[in-house]
Backbone:
């Protein structure tokens, strides 16, 4: 790597290269620090009061939803806190105070809410009892929710176009919000490669550098920033030399991009004629345009839980139907694989259930089977959307056969109900399972009696196999995609699926890792699904491979005993077999 | 106006659930309802106030009821306190 300037320059910060690309733009600090609520005077009291009413109503709506769900699952006792929070939002004495203070003091509602509710928190915090301090947190929750809803209204108008967002942490919901204002890049203090925000940034083709610990402290609004999402480097207020260097790089990249785009309508066929089907992962409608643009052969993974972000709500059957239909029609005759809501873990549990270990807790199919109504509304929407015959359906986080059988029963129930209403659907709709849990990886043979296909989610599989939280910066170096055990499990699954003659695809991040692709092809994966922006590049790689050499590489790797040995081996394979121009991107 | 003295008898004190119930009971009546503790007074119809009361087991409180239906209000609410919020 040659830089025309010193890499140790003081205006350079380093983080995790979370989404590739290089961009130069102005910085925008996205601060969600509730404690730093500004105190500003207002001129329009009526507007401020209206905004507060809006925020109260929105918060109440959110909490009502949470409360109803919580009663079902947690029982009335534990759900009481949500009811109390709703009551606080209806507390005549508190509301009266908030509104009259806005009128009298002519200050912004965020400040008044913060100031007034903090008083109660402080009273509780001054107590010696722990449980009372916890109650202060409950009251703090309400305060934060109100302030968040007051601010949300503002954010939409406050974020400028074409900026690089700098934040402590970006939630998936934020990422979605940002897509609406054409954000050019993301920099965060926390978060890793496989955080959901990073995945979204990659699929939206937006460069991101995460885990830059002091980014919010070092960068000010309107600083000029260069993000190098390939190397995880950011430059604050670049010198002329630095600007020239990266300007030059950007134009080279554009050229390469254009070259790759010529592959759009070409298939991913190895040099010896084996076709690999390359599909796109999709989170939100906004990405649909990339699916076509990047030449995907269908959608291998539609993550439906994004509804919670965009709508802040669980949509009903009719809404879902419209959404699934729109997507399946736009890619017809290519296939659309819809994954049932993967709620829980690090992903938007619709209510604030505090689990000691959420990644091992109530998520995916476990959550769905506990909420039959929610699950059935999704099953029916998928069935009804399937009339063109290009939709298949799968469930996340399967750990045992019972979950598959229970799901099949619900599916059959939904089919019977639809038939009795004379609503048509694809009678032969294919049903599959995600393999993310090691126990499921070992059960392919048994599962195959009930399912039509398998799809491997490598991110979760790796973290469960290695008992390593991919979102935890302290241990995330233990999260090794090329750990020998990971490769062996993948190999085992492909050969098991082959024995029972059921298709198996890979839809985790690994499918878009250039180093992983020769190995995956070598052990026999024929379907790869990835974020759309990676597709042209992976196509190019596949077109440079030969099955023979991949199989040889795979066999070698399966006999090595450390990630380092494996990566060294793959690297030398690349040097021998892959065209030089591919390397250009990474230099 | 009616004045009552009550002692918190349940183990957990006025936690979230009883706080909500007290306010709900009070809302049924037109009468003003005030809770006093160590010179501090809070409106018994304000959930955030009652939640902040920090009344643990053994605390003695003074309750006042004032209005047309004060008798009924005093009876039902005092009774709820004396039952230890149905937690004993």
Residues:
């Amino acid at each position: 790597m040659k830089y025309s300037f010193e890499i140790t320059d003081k205006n350079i910060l380093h983080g995790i290269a979370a989404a590739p690309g290089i961009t130069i733009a102005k910085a925008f600090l996205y601060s969600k620090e509730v404690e730093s609520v500004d105190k500003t005077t207002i001129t329009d009291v009526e507007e401020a009061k209206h905004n507060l009413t809006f925020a109260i109503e929105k918060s109440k709506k959110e909490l009502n939803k949470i409360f109803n769900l919580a009663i079902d699952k947690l029982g009335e006792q534990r759900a009481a806190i949500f009811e109390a929070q709703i009551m606080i939002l209806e507390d005549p004495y508190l509301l009266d105070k908030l509104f009259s203070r806005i009128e009298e003091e002519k200050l912004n509602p965020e400040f008044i809410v913060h100031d007034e509710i903090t008083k109660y928190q402080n009273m509780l915090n001054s107590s010696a009892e722990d449980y009372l301090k916890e109650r202060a947190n409950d009251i703090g929750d309400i305060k934060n929710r109100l302030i968040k809803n007051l601010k949300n209204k503002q954010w939409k108008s406050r974020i400028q176009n074409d900026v690089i967002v700098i934040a402590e942490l970006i939630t998936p919901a934020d990422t979605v919000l940002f897509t609406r204002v054409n954000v050019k890049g993301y920099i965060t203090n926390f978060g890793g490669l496989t955080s959901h925000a990073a995945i979204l940034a990659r699929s939206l083709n937006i460069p991101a550098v995460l885990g830059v610990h002091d980014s919010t402290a070092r960068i000010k609004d309107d600083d000029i920033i260069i993000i190098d999402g390939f190397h995880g480097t950011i430059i604050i207020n670049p010198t002329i030399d630095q600007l020239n260097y990266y300007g030059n790089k950007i134009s080279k990249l554009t050229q390469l991009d254009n070259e790759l785009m010529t592959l759009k309508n070409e298939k991913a066929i190895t040099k010896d004629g084996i076709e690999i089907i390359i599909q796109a992962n999709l989170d939100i409608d906004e990405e649909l345009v990339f699916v076509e643009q990047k030449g995907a052969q269908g959608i291998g993974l539609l993550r439906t839980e994004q509804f919670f972000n965009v709508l802040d709500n669980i949509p009903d059957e009719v809404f879902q139907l419209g959404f699934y239909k729109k997507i399946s029609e736009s890619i017809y005759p290519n296939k659309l694989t819809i994954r049932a809501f993967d709620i829980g873990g690090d992903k938007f549990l619709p209510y604030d259930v505090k689990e000691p270990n959420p990644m091992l807790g109530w998520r995916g199919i476990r959550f769905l089977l506990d909420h039959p109504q929610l699950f059935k509304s999704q099953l029916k929407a998928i069935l009804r959307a399937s009339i063109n015959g290009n939709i298949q359906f799968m469930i996340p986080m399967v750990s045992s056969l019972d979950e598959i059988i229970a799901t099949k029963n619900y599916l059959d129930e939904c089919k019977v109900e639809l038939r009795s209403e004379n609503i048509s659907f694809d009678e032969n709709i294919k049903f599959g399972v995600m393999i993310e849990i090691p126990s499921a990886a070992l059960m392919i043979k048994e599962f195959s009696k009930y399912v039509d296909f398998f799809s491997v989610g490598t991110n979760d599989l790796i973290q469960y196999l290695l008992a390593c939280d991919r979102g935890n910066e302290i241990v995330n170096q233990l999260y090794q995609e090329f750990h020998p055990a990971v490769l062996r499990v993948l190999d085992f699954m492909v050969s098991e699926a082959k024995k029972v003659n059921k298709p198996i695809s890979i839809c985790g991040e690994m499918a878009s890792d250039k180093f992983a692709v020769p190995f995956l092809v070598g052990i026999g994966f024929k379907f790869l699904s990835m974020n759309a922006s990676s597709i042209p590049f992976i196509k190019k790689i596949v077109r440079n491979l030969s099955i023979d050499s991949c199989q040889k590489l795979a066999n070698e790797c399966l006999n090595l005993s450390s990630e380092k040995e494996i990566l060294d081996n793959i690297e030398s394979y690349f040097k021998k077999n892959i065209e030089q121009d591919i390397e250009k991107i990474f230099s | 106006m009616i004045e009552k003295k009550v002692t918190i008898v349940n183990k957990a004190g006025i936690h979230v659930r009883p706080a909500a119930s007290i306010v709900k009971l009070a809302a049924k009546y037109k009468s003003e309802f005030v809770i006093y503790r160590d010179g501090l007074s809070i409106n018994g119809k304000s959930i955030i106030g009652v939640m902040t009361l920090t009344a643990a087991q053994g605390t003695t409180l003074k309750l006042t009821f004032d209005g047309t239906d004060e008798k009924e209000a005093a009876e039902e609410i005092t009774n709820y306190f004396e039952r230890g919020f149905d937690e004993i």
Observations:
- The longest strand of chain B covers residues 60-66.
- The mean pLDDT of chain B is 90.
